[in-house]
Amino acid sequence: MAYAPSESAALIDLPEDAPIQLFDLKTQQASIRSALEQRWIDILDHGRFIGGPEVTECEQKLAEFTGAADVVAVGSGTQALVMPLLAMGIAEGDAVFIPGFTYNATANAVLLSGGYPVIVDIDPRTFNMDPADLARKIDETKAEGRLTPRAIMPVDLYGLPADYTAIQAVADAHNLRVIADGAQAFGGKDNGRWVGNLAEITATSFYPTKTLGGYGDGGAILCQDADFADRMRSIRWHGTGDNRKESIRVGINGRCDSIQCAVVSEKLDLFEAERARRITAANVYNQRLGNIVGLQEALDGQENGYGLYTVRVPNRDAVRAALSEKGVPSGIYYDMAIHQMPAFAHFAEAGSLPECEKAADESLSLPMHPYLSEGQVHKVCDVLIEAVQG
Ligand SMILES: Cc1ncc(COP(=O)(O)O)c(C=O)c1O
Asked: Which of 214, 239, 268 is the last residue of a domain?
């Protein structure tokens, strides 16, 4: 069957002077507030604040939605990255390949597991891991012989899936595992398949500003293999067996509490309608800004989940100041590549990952959420075009 891209939907109406926000959690809350209040009451009544029925409900809904074989709700996106690495027995001397332009949690997760992050450059069009540089880095690592390549951790930056077709081919050629860092990308797609179903294991985050966020910390591991999910359930409860008493493997407290799972379940019901509005806003940005600034480009068949809408501008500080003066907020994700941060500086030399460093200098995120009006999206474009063209 031919692949049909997802539908967009009309944006909401707002008064002309309504302030533009980078994210908007309040408007969304109004639409689920009474359902959430009832859920609080239910949780207070049953009293199972950890491991309540909301956890299984949330896991099942996420599996059904994404097509993943099984889902394990955990305490954060970072835990969702660390726990699979622990389960794979990643240890000292093991190389895990990560892109150099991502949130610091990707690198931290590898180091917390005991592995060594080998940093890969990005494709400047997608902002995601460059599969050609990945293959090069694996060959170099093998030739050097100090580390054993074990896993690849691509990141779906800003909501755009990494190039899993190319990355999986590299992984298969070298017998490596793939753990997708989809923390920013719930709602991204590749040829009709959701993020969560594009790699054998995907980590996502329920940090409140994510496309599917809770009201606190949380995350989930989405797996293709139900046995692996069972191991994750053991690891999230200190590595215990079914009786939850003696540890049969090393684990952590990786649990997601009942309240966060209730929030995520409730928000999942809104998700597709919200996503359709993100797509509409992004279509306007793409159309109006395509010749003005650098855009993040999806590969054939891919759909961005638009966790963030990020462009490239060479004179970022001046543009940002001009936006702010006209009431348009913006964000920078990120102004440092991983190897430019003090904690990770010894994993790659300055200048050795040129596309990551360029992205860190140029990336600028514009307001992106499902509660923007058409007038607001056009105002962002007007102000940005004026700021860039002077
Ligand atoms: C790419 C990426 N990976 C991992 C994480 C970690 O998620 P959490 O903050 O839920 O631990 C984030 C969070 O922002 C992220 O953006």
From this structure: 268
205 C-alpha vs ligand 1 centroid, how far in Å? 6
26-61 confidence digits (pLDDT tens)? 999 999 999 999 999 999 999 999 999 999 999 999
Range of the domain at 365: 270-389
Say which residues have a Cβ less than 8 Å from residue 182's Cβ, sequence separation at least 6: 156, 161, 188, 195, 196, 202, 203, 204, 222
- The string of pLDDT tens digits covering residues 107-125 is 999 999 999 999 999 999 9
Asked whether residue 166 is assigned to any structural domain, the reply reads yes
Q: How far apart are CA 165 and CA 137, in angstroms?
A: 18
Choose which residue among 76, 78, 257 to substitute to test ligand 1 binding: the one with the highest number of ligand atoms within 8 A of its C-beta: 78
Q: Which residues line ligand 1 (CB under 6 A)?
A: 76-78, 102-103, 105-106, 155, 181, 183-184, 205, 207, 217, 219
Among 104, 76, 22, 98, residue whose Cα is nearest residue 360: 104
**CA 260, chain centre distance (Å):** 18
Q: Whose CA is nearest to atom 10 of ligand 1?
A: 77
Same domain for 175 and 37: yes
Name the closest-CA residue to atom 13, ligand 1. Answer: 183
1 pLDDT above the threshold of 60: no
CA of 288 to the centre of ligand 1 (A): 30
- State the closest ligand 1 atom to the C-alpha of 206, by its place in the atom list counted from 1: 10
Chosen domain end from 239, 268, 297: 268
Domains of the chain: total: 2
